[in-house]
């Protein structure tokens, strides 16, 4: 009986860890306004300087 309880505890800890990892992956998405405060225009070539884009980011 004690062995079974130990296995259940390991499963619960693993599930909590997975939920934590997926939560942090989702919350790291960022929304960027292309061109910054100036908005969209023809000269946005330098706008990306200093930015690191990740999967899930939104360009608007």
Automatic annotation (TrEMBL):
GO molecular-function terms, A-Z: electron transfer activity
Q: What are the boundaries of the signal sequence?
A: 1-29
**UniProt keywords, alphabetically:** Signal
| Gene3D superfamilies membership | Cupredoxins - blue copper proteins (2.60.40.420)
Specify the domain of life of the species encoding this protein.
Eukaryota
Q: Which stretches make up the Phytocyanin domain? A: 30-60
Q: What is this protein called?
A: Phytocyanin domain-containing protein
Q: Which organism is it from?
A: Lupinus luteus (European yellow lupine)
Output the lineage of the source organism.
Answer: Eukaryota, Viridiplantae, Streptophyta, Embryophyta, Tracheophyta
């Amino acid at each position: 009986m004690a062995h079974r309880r130990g296995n259940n505890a390991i499963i619960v800890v693993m599930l909590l860890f997975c939920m934590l990892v997926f939560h942090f992956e989702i919350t790291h998405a960022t929304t960027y306004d292309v061109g910054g405060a100036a908005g969209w225009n023809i000269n946005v070539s330098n706008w990306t300087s200093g930015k690191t884009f990740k999967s899930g980011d939104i360009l608007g």
